[in-house]
Amino acid sequence: MEASPRAISPSGDLLVELRGISKQFPEVLAVDGVDFQLRRGEIHALLGENGAGKTTLMNVLYGIVRPSAGTVFVKGKAVSIHSPRDAIHLGIGMVHQHLKVVEPHTVVENVILGLKEPRFLLDVKEASKKVRELADRYGLPVDPSSRIWQLSIGERQRVEILKVLYRDAEILIMDEPTSVLTPQETRELFASLLKMKEEGKGIVFITHKMREVFELSDRVTVMRKGKVVSTLDTKGAEEHQLARLMVGRDVLFDIQRAEVTPGRELLAVKEVSSLNDKGLQALKDVSISVCGGEILGIAGVAGNGQKELTEVVAGLRHATSGHVLVDGVDVTNRSPKFIFEQKLAFVPEERMGLGAVPSLSVADNLALKSYRYAPYSHRSVIDESFVEGKAQGLVKEFDITTPAVTTPARFLSGGNLQKVVLARELSGMAASEPPKVVVASYPTRGLDVGATEFVQRNLLKYRERGSAVLIVSEELDELLMISDRIVVFFGGRVMGDIPRAKFDVEGIGLMMAGRTAAEARTE
Amino acid sequence: MKVASRNLRLIRRTEISRETSIMISVLGVFMAFAVAGVLFLLVGVNPIAAYGAILDSFTNPILLGNTIQRASPLLFAALGLTVVFRLNFWNVGAEGQIVMGGIAATGIVTLHLVSGAIPDLLVLPTMFLASFFLGALYALVPALLKAKLQVNEILSTLMLNYIAILLGNYLVFGPWLDPAAHGFPNSRIFPPEAVIPAIPVIGGSTGFLVGIVAAVGIYFLMKRTTFGFELKVTGDSTKAAKYAGMSYTRIVSLAMAISGGLAGLGGLVLVSGIIGRMKEDFSAGYGYTSIIVAWLAGLNPLATVVAAFLFGGLLVSGTTLQVRLGLSSSTTNIFEALILIFVLASEFLKKYRVVMGGGL
Asked: B17 in contact with A at a CB cutoff of 8 Å?
């Protein structure tokens, strides 16, 4: 595996060249003989579904993952990268999807953290000056002396980028950076990246969003199931073509939405306040209302109270004030069991470990909430044949791919696991009538295109069957596509409530950044 | 990288077959015996003779009775532990719960002897209920402390052991001291109606047979009931259990009540079926040994019967080795500890596979 140091890549003008990279994990071949090149002064999009191997491939380049086979060339020289420290030394920087900044520290402290240079004495002033210069030069405004916890997610990401620039990186890897940003912040980030590109840096931009590929990149490499399917110039490529390469089949971009006349109010949240896990205010007097046959989308950057709202509604979090009503029944701070019995389905954000129990079989996971009711059990004795039979029916109905209903849930892919959760929640308590309220938190996060489509179609189906559907998502496109109304969350408050007829991305984006509906209109 | 290719590496197992799992356990016990053999050599005892003495615990008719005797308290306590350990609730308080069971039984006997308030036929059933009840009650304390105040159960159950042991000692030194014991810290000798009868022919307390019935009951409880389902879910993820509408307080209390109640029955068997009275420090570590038994059985109630039987034999062997081959009691303690270490190591090997070299 160790390449001879004299082996020189024939194309020495490339910043990075990966040749025949493979990575075998105990269970899967995550990356399979991949070739990849990054030129000086280009933004190279790495497109693929979740699990396609994009991040693993880049983790190889950044020294987090050791390849099972293949050679890495950086600026024409074969190198062996053992750790991120080696990577940084070679001028490679990576900004992870989940930001790795130290919250109690200041921006400048985070930037110089882990540097070899100041061995004992920190020259914070000098470092601050350099940070400020870099921030100005690349349009990454952030105050070097603020503490990380005071910053928004977008600002924290800037700190991560500054950290990389401070180390004079020429090669920048961005792993799905826009998933935590508002549309406006995304635009600012793109401007910064284009500036870096002009200066001759090379940027690898990992994404699964088609739009970003076209907006930003010069070339695009599409990965599927660990392999590179194709590398194309972005100019001249077509969206449908890329989608087909990515998924391996044709994709429908629009799904049918039937006309439904909303019924009575089935979910009412009235001036609810609540605290987050740290004991800080997460919801402030939030009021929303969802009628039967209606989908209410909750838009907002993650961490603005959406998670807490869904948890309060499902009985998993204490409301400090206000009321929650399910079809007129006050369920405020009642047990999750009581709320489930009011026919409220909850698809939580965290699938493994909350929505599903990894060591339990698929059948048991499907019975996770109804096990205590007949016909699942009689006098506290579980009817195993009923549980299995029921599971087999749901596996068929919801198209769940699993070797058997007795297979432990942890062996299921993300998409199939989500189908298990969805099947259980939507099928309710062995009753044939649909749930009154469906609360779905990031129901398509991390799913491939096929599974995403499946989840969305089911949410629409239950809307047609008369359920009130509340969906939280960070994918604005998704909300725009399926919602009847969109409510925007910022800082634990509702910034605006927009009916489908008045959907506009700009306005919603401004509200996601904290402007009120009135401000968003005038801007 | 060349170094890495020669290294031993651990790979997490995703699934393990029942056969492999049992094989690893058996192999672990064999390894313990092998290492113990070296130990026997070091202290100048022929390992073969030592192994023979151990084997005698299971084949010699008299010793077999002893083995069943000593296996009985272990079986009850370990059965209870399989229930709470499934919940990831680390009850190390079986020792104290055994003592409380013994205290309850002795209390009934003392009352019976002093006041004669209980008819002879009802003495054993009353003892049975009292032992279960007091053991359960005692185990509820750490359960509620954990559920309501997040008190670490390892500390609370451990500390409660000392309280129980000292309470037991206080009773046999003080109020329950047998007037005929010439000052020895013993309770009154149990009259025949308060003694669990022995198994005919083989010997050993019939408590073991009751234990086997209890094992089947616990197996059913864990496998087939809604409570068993709740145990599995809560043990895997308390968050998921809450999400599914399960009450942690209820589940943990019920599980600990069962665990403590069974340990309490272990205490009953100990004082009534084996010793015949209550003595100072009468539990002598049964509660701790039962932790090993529960793990050796892989938290399977039916396998617990076998594991308890084997450990009962081991305890008897300790005495045989001392008497027959002149080994010190500390040597036999080391032998037991070796078994524990190898059981723990095999638990680890059930989770990970060791792979030699092979690069990355």
From this structure: no
pLDDT tens-place string over residues B144-169: 999 999 999 999 999 999 999 999 99
Q: Where are the domains of chain A?
A: 265-522
For residues A347 and A441, the answer to whether their CB atoms sit within 8 Å is: yes
CA–CA min distance B76, chain A (Å)? 24
For residue A156, give every residue at least 6 positions away whose Cβ sits within 8 Å of its Cβ, in sequence order, or none.
Answer: A99, A101, A148
Residues of A in contact with B5 (CB under 8 A): none
**Residues A411, B239: C-beta atoms closer than 8 Å:** no
CB contact under 8 A, A372 and B233: no
Same domain for B331 and B219? no
Query: Of the candidates A152, A143, A153, A159, which has an alpha carbon nearest to the alpha carbon of residue A178?
Result: A153
In a domain, B52, yes or no: no
Whether the CB of A29 is below 8 Å from some CB of chain B: the reply is no
Which residues from A are below 8 Å from B224, CB to CB?
381-382, 384
d(CA A266, CA A276): 26
The answer to whether residues B286 and B250 belong to one domain is yes
The reply to whether B201 and B339 lie within a common domain is: no
CATH superfamily of A265-522: P-loop containing nucleotide triphosphate hydrolases (3.40.50.300)
Phi, psi of A64 (to 5 degrees): -80, -35
The answer to whether A112 and A162 have CB atoms below 8 angstroms apart is no
My answer on whether omega of the bond before B61 falls inside 30° of 0, hence cis, is no
Asked whether the predicted pLDDT for residue B359 surpasses 50, the reply is no
Taking CB atoms and an 8 Å limit, are A358 and B1 in contact across chains? Answer: no
Contact check, Cβ <8 Å, B245/A355: no
Instruction: Report yes or no: B134 and B127 within 8 Å, Cβ to Cβ.
Output: no
Residues B135 and B284 both lie in one domain:
yes
Q: Is residue B81 part of a domain?
A: yes
Q: CB contact, 8 Å: B248 with chain A?
A: no
From the CA of A370, how many Å to the nearest CA of chain B? 9
State the pLDDT confidence band at A27, using cuts at 50, 70 and 90: low
Helix ranges (DSSP H) in chain B:
2-6, 18-42, 47-59, 61-86, 94-115, 120-149, 153-173, 207-224, 226-236, 238-243, 248-268, 286-296, 301-325, 329-351
Can you name the residues that pair with A290 across neighbouring β-strands?
A: A267
Q: What size, in residues, is chain B?
A: 360
Question: What is the bridge-based pairing of β-strands A14-24 and A69-74?
Answer: antiparallel
Residue A356: beta bridge partners?
A352
**B1 touches A at CB < 8 Å:** yes
Q: Are residues B90 and B176 in the same domain?
A: yes
Question: CA torsion sign, B216 to B217 to B220 to B223?
Answer: negative
Average pLDDT, stretch A282-310?
93
Residue B262 in domain: yes
Structural domain harbouring B11: 1-45+327-360
Pair (B105, B163) in one structural domain? yes
In a domain, B104, yes or no: yes
For residues A3 and A276, the model is more confident at A276
> Count of domains in chain B?
2
What is d(CA B187, CA B208) in angstroms, rounded to the nearest whole number? 24
Q: What is the DSSP string of A287-325?
A: EEEEETTEEEEEE--TTSSHHHHHHHHHTSS-EEEEEEE
Closest CA to B83 of B204, B191, B215: B215
Torsion of the alpha carbons at A490, A496, A499 and A500, rounded to the nearest 10: -40
Residue B251 in contact with residue B232, Cβ under 8 Å? no
Q: B160 and B221: one domain?
A: yes
- Looking at residue A447, its pLDDT comes to 79
pLDDT score at A22: 93
The residue of A66, A380, A384, A407 whose CB has the most chain B CBs within 10 angstroms, and thus the best one to mutate to test that interface, is A380
State both tokens at B323.
């008497």
